[in-house]
Design goal:
single chain; eight-stranded parallel β-barrel; 12 helices
Length: about 300
Amino acid sequence: MTSRRRFIRTAAPAIAALGLAPKAASLAFGAPGFAPPVAVFSKVYQELKLDFEQSAEVTAEAGLDGIDCTVRGGGEIVPEQAADKMPPYAEALRRHGTRMLLLTTGIVGVSSPHAGEILRTGKQLGIQYYRLGYWSHRPERPPAKLLAEIGPSLKDLAAMNKELGVCGVYQNHSAPQNHSRRNAGCDLAELYDMVKDLDPGQVGVAFDLAHALIEHGDQWREHFDRLKPHIRVVYVKDVQRASGFVPFGQGEFARTGFFDLLARMNYRAPLSMHIEFNWAPEGNKTRPLLLQALKESRRVLGQWLA
């Protein structure tokens, strides 16, 4: 039998030709009207050292729309090989009915190694959004001085992004419990100061609610409302504030009403699904167990979206 996913893709042109809205097509299957594409953050594939074909197979088997591909030092693809390896990876995904939807990079400036090659290749593959790298606070440097250093770098990146037709996004990331490192933008008020004067179509925010809950608790909403015009991509993981990241459905995410807020924003970018919990015991991480964790996470995410 033709899979539901393949049927939807095959039928889409015919539906469009009949003049039916996409929402009408989704409702025919009982699906919610708010259903952005879901990409898995491919860092999890590195734990099993999956090659591109294997990654594409797992992505399709898990019922995902594609991947958020790591193109950075230590990533699935390292920056110097981006132009050569991103296209065949994208092609492997395409053969399995999925796509390379987002990029995660270490780019922090126009002079970051191979930044232009990564972004031009991504643009050719139809990728609009890429995650920037991080700047970290140091005890001997006042926070205001770091922001003063970051500002010109982001403005230069914004200009390059405008020229290339892509958008860089900066993720809010909570500090480790031991505060061994605190990135700029952990505090969402600081993140707002970083992006407030930039065109969000060129440099915006990748909003991570789980990290916001850890960092700000119940005050996350007021920061979200302030950042809303700048939010371009959303990262999804479940969390218990006291204990950290947990399997989807076992944390606080479902009680936040977050996806109602996104639907009212008319959010249409891909969601990046992060598998940050311990999905299998150390020494027993296998492809079947990873596939099970991805399927269950996607199932719970579907319930949240509904």
